[in-house]
Sequence to fold (64 residues):
Amino acid sequence: RNMARLCDKWDLYENRIHIDPPTALESKEDAINHVKGTIIEAIYGIIYLEGGIDAVQVAAINLK
Fold:
């Protein structure tokens, strides 16, 4: 949920390639929060690949 809030803060969810999250096993809100968290994880993964762990540590300040 924390990453979902960060995704909302950065307005990323509304600008994603639209694919409806599955809702069969979980609530729609939980599914959307999962997708939002995955978006943030992908961004931090890119930061890691481009700049290494030091860049991730600097960028992690935004999680607070």
